[in-house]
Amino acid sequence: MEERGSISIHTENIFPIIKKFLYSDHEIFLRELVSNAVDATQKIKRLAAIGEFTGELGDLTVKVAVDKEARTITIADHGIGMTAEEIKKYINQIAFSGASEFVERYKDSGDKSQIIGQFGLGFYSAFMVSDRVEIITKSYKEGSEAAHWTCDGSTEFAIIDAEKETRGTNVILNVTEDSEEFLEPARIRAILDKYCKFLPVPVEFEGEVINNPNPIWTKQPSELTDEDYKAFYKELYPFSEAPLFWIHLNVDYPFNLTGILYFPKIKNEFELQRNKIQLYSRQVFITDEVKDVVPEFLMLLHGVIDSPDIPLNVSRSFLQADSSVKKINTYITKKVADKLNELFKKDRTAFESSWSDINVFVKYGMLSDDKFYERAKDFVLLQSTDGKYYTIEEYKALVAPNQTNKSDQLVLLYTTDENKQHAFVEAAQSRGYNVLKLDTLIDSHFIGLLEQKLEKTTLKRVDSETTDKLIEKDETKESVLNDKEKEDLKTAYEQAISNQHMLVEVAPLSPDDAPVVITLPEFMRRMKDMSKSGGGGMMFMGDMPDTYNVTINANHPLNQRVLSAADEDKTRIARQAFDLALLSQNMLSGAALTAFVKRSFDLMTKE
User: Fold this and answer.
1) Mean pLDDT on 567-593
2) Which residues lie closer than 8 Å to 343 by C-beta, 6 or more apart?
3) 535's torsion region: left (phi>0), alpha (psi -120 to 50) or beta?
4) What is the pLDDT of residues 108-133, one digit of tens each?
5) Average pLDDT of the segment spanning 302-321
6) Alpha-carbon torsion angle 547, 551, 552, 557, nearest 10
7) Does residue 358 belong to any structural domain of this protein?
8) What integer pLDDT is reported at residue 64 of this predicted model?
């Protein structure tokens, strides 16, 4: 028996239009056809489970085969199969009418983000790489006859009887010349590995099952060991170090979501490895561009999210507008915060040892998401220069007695480079002050967040003021110099320095402090940092030279020697003291450094 017919649609040449709109996504034809085969296989399993199919299930493996000589790709399953009538209904009518609707809507549009799937185009994606598609199928229903459907991409089709003994469907693609890449086994294997790696039915290619039908995210956490989670991470990212820890997602209301998110070791902050979270729908890979499903800061995580509530052929506009996606976003944020809090409370020592790997992630989250900030503020850690860790509240309680200024404001001191700022750190510690290490790129932003969120609290870098001025109190130091001597000392240094960007002042510091202290005011430095990162409307400051405060210690014996020296020596000693201050902060180089070295030898010789 042979039956011929045509599909009643307005557009005669539908397939060139489909090809045009799906050009960049040609490889998804294989995902669509293998997914269809898996669906058919799962349906026969369900029918058997409820007693509607009582025959032998047999081997349920979906098989993909390439024949380069015959120029064909075959996708074969042992699922429910179809009768000739079902082919006409599902292939000729439903799918093709969806294709027709697509053409009518998109033929004059450049938007191809919602193409396949929404219009039933899954099967017809085969025509992106094929000029003739054949279906040989036999239904599971008793007494069914096998059928052979053929279509060459026009509106004409043919159905004839077929010789097929077993139930199931074979889809045969006759590959076009411009799609020969898909006749290469390596190309097919790569596509299968990308889209079909975790399909719930075994998929075989070249005699080898290429997928893991039972990935661990489909199991209950109680069934799994730490080794199971680590092995799965290795399966996903074979060249990555072992993860720090992980979260197993499993929720079925008000949306369906399973998955596992891993916390990787972040070696270089902002060497942010994005596109490491894979989005699946019923174990079929959709995309690794998940920024509309996962909050921005969680893009640092690795792993898998699977939700049947997200359609296979999802568009970005769908992700942005869909209420389920928004709920998923909120849920994941909460689960991550809960996991971190649990780890913090359960084993603080282990949490502290992991802090160097996760602090960028936590701080980024607090900066990006107010709700995450509220959850994280109790476990975010601050590290002091003595290596100890504190929560925000612990640290405030620790330093409040000694680091509250005369305006009743708590002053938190920090260093961004303990080595370069060592002299200032040491000076602060000699006053009994505690100094925090805030030395990552993200800390420049985190500092501002803390000041915004914490009441009556400010943060100052240890080299932004002389130590006496970092935390102003109702204490005054007496100067051993009178006003005229102070003015003479200031003049001597101004003549020695001769730099308009070095503002000289004389102040009565402790005799134990350095004779010359160079500082860059906190406000000025922060504004310049903002301009470098392109924020805060301070772009104009980026090219402005730094203006430093040069504080001359009136109570240091060296400066009394400057005052008593002859004019020539006065300038030379003042310059030497200033250069030593520059040198202590790695600010002396080039010709100035050469002159300093020569002057040092001269002074030593003179002595």
Assistant:
1) 88
2) 245, 350, 351, 354
3) beta
4) 544 444 443 443 457 878 888 998 99
5) 70
6) -140
7) no
8) 98
In sign, the C-alpha dihedral spanning 185, 188, 193, 194 is: positive
Locus of tokens 């040491």: 426
Strand pairing report for 381-383 and 245-251 = unpaired
Is the residue at 550 inside a domain? yes
Indicate if 195 and 306 belong to the same structural domain.
no
* pLDDT confidence of residue 45: 93
Confirm if 164 and 136 have CB atoms less than 8 A apart.
yes
CA 402 to each of CA 194, 397, 477: distance values in angstroms, whole numbers, following the listed order: 59, 10, 18
User: pLDDT tens digits for 404-416?
Assistant: 999 999 999 999 9
Dihedrals φ, ψ of 129, to 5°?
-120, 0
The single-letter DSSP state of residue 141 is S
* Domain assignment of residue 497, given as a range: 483-606
Distance CA 347, CA 127 (A): 57
Q: Please count the structural domains in the chain.
A: 4
> Do 186 and 268 fall within a single domain?
no
Identify the three-state secondary structure at position 505: strand
Contact in structure between 162 and 5 (CB atoms under 8 Å): no
Residues 203, 222, single domain; the answer is: no
What sign for the dihedral angle of Cα 395, 401, 404, 407? positive
* β-bridge partners, 519: 549
CATH of the domain at 579: 1.20.120.790
- Reduce the DSSP state of residue 411 to 3 states and report it: strand
Alpha-carbon distances, residue 125 vs 331, 423, 461 (angstroms): 35, 69, 61
Strands 548-553, 502-507: pairing is parallel
